[in-house]
Amino acid sequence: MNNRCRRQTVPAILSIVGLFPWLVACGPAEAPAPEVDPYAFAVPAHFPEPTYTLENNPVTEAGFNLGKALFFDANLSRDGSVSCNNCHQQAIAFADNPAHPTSVGVDNRLGSRNAPALNNLAFFPEFFWDGGVNHLDFVPINAIESPVEMDATLVEVVEYLSNSERYRTLFQEAFGITEITSPYMLYALSQFTVMMISAKSPYDEYVLGNTEALTPQEARGAVLFEENCSSCHAGVLQTDFSYRNNGLDDEFPDAGRANITEHPDDVGKFRVPSLRNVALTAPYMHNARFSSLEEVLDHYTRGMVYSATLDEAFINTRGQVKPMALSIEEREDIIAFLHTLTDRAFISNPIFRNND
């Protein structure tokens, strides 16, 4: 028995256990924790079942590492200047550099939307601000073939990969194939991105029963958040995956969800984003309208504007805009809570770092 254990336990329990205080205080030596495979996909205990089709593309170490190589490879773009990592950086929860309100692609071309953070994608039913893709395997095609992002084609990318001895080896190790094809390239990228699970924030500890994981202010903020925000930013994933008009504008050069559905009721509606790691992922909204969480709450308390598709949650019984009624202190409490959604283990996890 170590001295630290003896000093802490002997005085407190000698009268109960006589000559053998360490049997109660220390017990038998704990068995070492079993090793956890960092490349094994595991659903956190408090999460829903994944939507991603893991049965078709189970994660392996070789497949993950191939996906990581592709994620960081700027040669997937037309001029070799832009990789997936350009717009999705681990230190800020795989969001874009705040200096880039909208995506910056080849030849410094500007996209029209803010690149979303990447986390918990294995549990998403649809992707992008307008939900234009409903399976993770097809998400990279948008960036690769977008003229304002990577401006390449799948044919060109596969040709580049096929001419690389390194990639021929990586694909063979990951999938046992000798001919590289775009479906396997997309499989590899999915293996890398499905492992981006963010589930170890103070908020998660609180959800799992540790009532001391949040400070009193953060706990007050959690209650206020539940009352004012959780109808959209619902559950542990912090989104209900719906599409809503939250009163940013009354005219819509970007029609949002209506670009996909072609339905007038969807004009100006965008996917409710997950708020996990939100304190790291400024600017906010699909068009990067707000640079801080304070500005976001300013919008909901006094900045919303009416339009025909404004979400009914923001309309009162007289058909007028209904702002949130929050005091300065309550807004500060909500922001304190939002900071508890930051998952430091996720943004520092070494398996996502570029090894090249």
Cα distance, first to last residue? 46 Å
Query: What is the fold-level CATH name, i.e. the topology of the largest domain?
Result: Cytochrome Bc1 Complex, Chain D, domain 2
Total DSSP helices:
14
Cα-based radius of gyration, to the nearest Å:
24 Å
Biggest sheet, open or closed, and with what strands and sense? 2 strands, antiparallel
Indicate the CATH class of the largest domain: Mainly Alpha
**Shape estimate:** globular
How would you classify the quaternary structure? single chain
What do the pLDDT scores average to?
92
Name the CATH superfamily classification of the largest domain: Cytochrome c-like domain
Neighbour order of strands in the largest sheet: 1-2
As a percent range, the share of helical residues equals 25-40%
Run of helices and strands: HHHHHHHHHHEHEHHH
Topology, number of strands: 2
Structural class: mainly alpha
Strand content: under 5%
Give the uncertain stretches in residue-range form: 1-27
Number of domains: 3
CATH architecture title of the largest domain: Orthogonal Bundle
Describe the protein's architecture and organization.
The chain is mostly helical. The chain folds into three domains: 1-31, no CATH class; 61-197, Cytochrome Bc1 Complex, Chain D, domain 2 (Orthogonal Bundle), CATH 1.10.760.10; 202-340, Cytochrome Bc1 Complex, Chain D, domain 2, CATH 1.10.760.10. Helices cover 35% and strands 1% of the residues. It has 14 helices and two strands; from the N terminus they run H-H-H-H-H-H-H-H-H-H-E-H-E-H-H-H. A two-stranded antiparallel ribbon has the order 1-2. The radius of gyration is 24 Å and the shape is globular.
